[in-house]
Each structure stands twice: as structure tokens, then as C-alpha cells.
Amino acid sequence: MVRGRISRLSVYDVRFPTSLGGHGSDAMHTDPDYSAAYVIIETDAEDGHKGYGITFTLGKGTEVVVCAVNALAHLILNKDLRDIVSDFRGFYRQLTSDGQLRWIGPEKGVVHLATAAVLNALWDLWAKQEGKPLWKLLVDMDPKTLLSCIDFRYISDTLTEEEAYEILQKGRVGNREREAQMLAHGYPAYTTSCAWLGYSDNTLKQLCSEALKDGWTRFKVKVGADLQDDIRRCRLIRDMIGPDKTLMMDANQRWDVPEAVEWMSKLAEFKPLWIEEPTSPDDILGHATISKALAPLGIGVATGEQCHNRVIFKQLLQASALQFLQIDSCRLGSVNENLSVLLMAQKFGIPVCPHAGGVGLCELVQHLIIFDYISVSASLENRMCEYVDHLHEHFKYPVIIKKASYMPPKDPGYSTEMKEESVKKHQFPDGKVWKKLLAGQENC
Ligand SMILES: C[C@H](O)[C@@H](O)[C@@H](O)[C@H](O)C(=O)O
Ligand SMILES: [Mg+2]
User: Fold this and answer.
1) Domain span(s) for CATH 3.30.390.10 in the chain
2) Which GO MF term does the entry hold, naming one (predicted)?
3) Beta partners for residue 14, in sequence order
């Protein structure tokens, strides 16, 4: 039973100095400090449950998102949780349509990242109060209730509520078997941990051989800064993994459209399954041009980690601009908006391969993709969820990977809660970790 009035919302700027080791580096983000705007929501209910929510950020960006969360707080405080979840569509719309705040969105950028953090905390709280992991809360929810969480505004020309209902009804066939299959074998994953752009060839080799030993069969390599480096690194990794394992490439928006096509023609010999974010995430028709040009080479286009909202995803699908759709649990407006994208992808027959990694993204998005398999797509063909082996130790309910697959979480909630000690130590700028680092910089 859902209960309680929201009595408190706190937000923290939590940063991890991952840039020191080149972890997470790519052709555009050369010094990423994996960070989160971390939201805690409390209620006056006696159960003591709190909702934890994050959005993923890189270092300095976090302080801006923290401001935006504080600006949204008045829309959440004193609301009854029961009223929120019984009309979640209405509440989502209230948050995203605030007459003053929407001007700096709408439904995009900082204000949308802040919305995601807040809504992620509410979903965590709801799932905790129901005593279920989030994926199971979604799987058990009747289709009508599930659809009542989605704002269909701007997408009803492509997906009506009735069509979405039919998709969910169809998804009920065989869902118990798929749930049992997930619990036994988990959801297939790929690793990005071996080949960040800032890693030396030696590090790449060492991590790749460890990953192979651990049973990984799908690998992603960062490309896009220097063609000769890319050729060398892709050859190295392809030689190590052999011809049959899967390789993906990620350019993180580095290229213009013709450059993307030309560059990828040179990397085609390494047989990538996809090129991810070849150009600006806003360039829908550019993605369509690249998709068309690379199709004869057997290379698909993947994108989504910086896709603003359901409207851009709608157009990417309409324009046949992507062959792999990458939802992100913290960029879109939380579970609510991600549900609409999963349903649109299903309608278009495009496989969803979520973006994860960062800090907490694996913890969150596993719930969405497990739900997708059980209740929406019913397919694992061409589908896998990203995995990155960083920062899980800071979470109270970290992901469990077995045989290169995500095992469904069993603890109630959205796996968003961080360890108190980790938050304390990594708060910027006053946590122990940052005090030391900043003092070191001053002494230089
Ligand atoms: C800055 C980040 O590490 C990105 O490079 C990362 O999210 C990446 O695009 C990915 O696909 O995992
Ligand atoms: Mg990427």
C-alpha cells in the first residue's frame, strides 16, 4: 500500500574522480569524473522508507543539476504519494510543464535531468513500499495502471494509448516463463570496460584478456579522435576476441555526417555491429543518412544516451535513423518516459540496448530492460544491456553479473540507494576525497 506525504527532499553533489585513471574517457569527454545529483525523498509515513534517486552527470555539471532539483522541490513537497502514483501521468506533466521552469527545457537539458533524479526517487519509494524490486512492480502492474504513468502528449501520432495497451496485452503471453528465465539466467550484457579512449594499448590488452576469461563475448571500443589510433586499437581488440565475438564502436558525437560515413568505411574491416553516436544527438536526419550509407557494410547506428526525450526518439524511429535504440534511465524523464520509448521501439521492431555504466546507470536500467523482455519485447534477438565495471561498491544493492548477464535484483526498490559513507566521502567539495584532491591541486 502506498502511503505518506512527502515531508523532505534533499539533494547532494556526489562526484568520483574517475578522470584520474582515464576511466570513462571518450572522443568528446576526455576527463570525465563520474558524478550524480543524488536525491533523497522522505515522507511522514511510519514505515521509515525513503526514496533515493539519481541522475548521472560529469563533475562540474552536477552543481547545475543540483540547483535545478532545488527549483523543482516545491512541486513535490507536501504531496501525498498516493495522489502522485494514482495519477502519475498528471504528476509527470505538472513537473515537466511548470510555467516558469519549462522555459529552460522543455523536457530537455538540465531541468529534465533534475526531473529524472526526482522521479527516480519516487519510483524507488513506490517500489519499496510495495516490497518489490522495480522491474517486478512493473511486471505485476496491470496494463491500464502502467499506461496511466505515461504522458502520451507529442507521441500519440505514432503510438496511441490503445496500441500501447495491445502491445502490453500481447506481452502477457508467456510472461511467467520469461520471468523464470530471467531469474535463472539473467539478461545478456556487453562490456565497455576494456577500451576507454584514454587507456593504453597494454591496459586494453590486459582488460580484454581478463574479460574473455570472465566469459564476456560482446565488447565496445571507443573511437573517433584519431583514425590511425582507431585502426590499431580495433585490430588489437578484434585479434584478441576473434572473428565470432561481437564488437561495437562508440564515437560519442565526434563527427560530421560525411566524416562519420568515411571514417566508419575505414573501420568496417573490423566488423562492428554498430557505430554509436556518430554525430550530434539532435541530428535525426543525419543519423538517417549515416544509417543508409552504412547498411551495405553491415554496420548499424545506435544512439540514445544523450537523446533528450520521447519526441526525439519518436522521430529517430520514424526516420529509420537508428537500428539499435539506447534508452537511458537518467536522461529521459525516469520510468514514466522510458516506458513510452520501450513501447514505441516495440511498435517499430527496433531492439533496445540500454546505455549504462556511469555511476548507478547499470543499477537502474537493468530493471527497465528486464521488464521490457518479460512484458514488452519478449525477445533477446540483437539485444543486450551495457555493463561497465565501475563504482558498484558504492551502492547498497549493487548489480549482480553472472556469466556476462544481469541477474534480476531481488531487493525492493530501484537499486538507487548509495552507501551513506560513500556519499559522505565523495560529496563535492567537502567530502574527504575531494578535500584531499583539492588541497593537492592548491599545493601544485
Ligand atoms: C563519458 C561517458 O563515459 C561516456 O563515454 C559513456 O557513457 C559511453 O558513451 C557509453 O556508451 O558507455
Ligand atoms: Mg556511448
Assistant:
1) 6-132+421-443
2) magnesium ion binding
3) 36, 427
CA 26 to ligand 1 centroid distance, Å? 7
Architecture of domain 6-132+421-443: 2-Layer Sandwich (3.30)
Indicate if the alpha-carbon torsion angle 109, 135, 11, 394 is positive or negative. Answer: negative
Q: Whose CA is closest to atom 12 on ligand 1?
A: 357
- Of ligand 1's listed atoms, the one at least distance from the Cα of 252 is 9
Fold assignment, 169-414: TIM Barrel (3.20.20)
Task: Please give the distance, rounded to the nearest whole angstrom, from the Cα atom of residue 192 to the centre of ligand 1.
Answer: 8
Residue 317 has pLDDT above 70, yes or no: yes
Nearest residue by C-alpha to atom 3 in ligand 1: 24
Q: What is the pLDDT of residues 362-397, one digit of tens each?
A: 999 999 999 999 999 999 999 999 999 999 999 999
The pLDDT value recorded for residue 441 is: 83
Give the chain's mean pLDDT.
97
Q: What is the ipTM of this complex?
A: 0.98
* Residue of minimum CA distance from atom 6 in ligand 1: 24
What is the atom index within ligand 1 of the atom nearest the CA of 276? 11
Active-site amino acid positions: 222, 355
Is the Cβ–Cβ distance between 204 and 237 less than 8 Å? yes
To the nearest 10°, the Cα dihedral for 275, 279, 282, 283?
Answer: -100
Which of the listed residues 35, 113, 249, 252 should we mutate to test ligand 1's pocket, taking the one with most ligand atoms within 8 A of CB?
252
87, amino acid identity: D
Opening angle at CA 130, ends 125 and 135, nearest 5: 80
* Closest CA to ligand 1's atom 10: 355
Residue 443's pLDDT band (boundaries 50, 70, 90)?
Answer: confident
Q: What is the pLDDT of residue 444?
A: 66
Interval 143-188: pLDDT, tens: 999 999 999 999 999 999 999 999 999 999 999 999 999 999 999 9
Count other C-beta atoms under 10 Å from residue 297's C-beta. 16
